[in-house]
Amino acid sequence: MWLSVVALVGLYYLLRWYWERQVVSHLQDKYVFITGCDSGFGNLLARQLDLRGLRVLAACLTEEGAQQLRGQTSDRLETVILDVTKTDSISAATQWVKERVGDRGLWGLVNNAGISVPTAPNEWLTRRDFMKILDVNLLGLLEVTLSLLSLVRKARGRVVNVSSVMGRLSLFGGGYCISKYGVEAFSDSLRY
Hints:
alpha/beta, five-stranded parallel beta sheet, 6 helices, 52% helix, oxidoreductase activity
């Protein structure tokens, strides 16, 4: 019995060692588009991927955020202004991405743009308060993904939708939890 336990543990560590040694080659030829790069997770991810040598296409809401990000990164990182609540802005950003990636396609799409306020008990909020969050966190994510999905498929890339534990457990009122439930459902449907 002990021999089989030792063999299973040894096999586990051997497989773990093998998977940890796997390295993605030619990172300098791979493009990743990230939304919400003005601050927070998107900004940090854009800087980290740039340090690793990927070609980062960073979408910022403001020119100030874009300039700040460009000042902290290499020339590989390029920025575009994107408001995920506006179809014209998404179309322009999609065209901009297509011009950059060409035939290579998009190796990664990270939907990170999001807001969490206003958050309050539901009876204190209006329909407009709910729609403000849903427009950014859910509907914007849907439209960005659908507009770039063909480029992701071309490169056999991945879509990463930044969600929250609030997409599984609603602890407070407002549109945030609702939007994250929607992101979870959309991610599940994409996976299938």
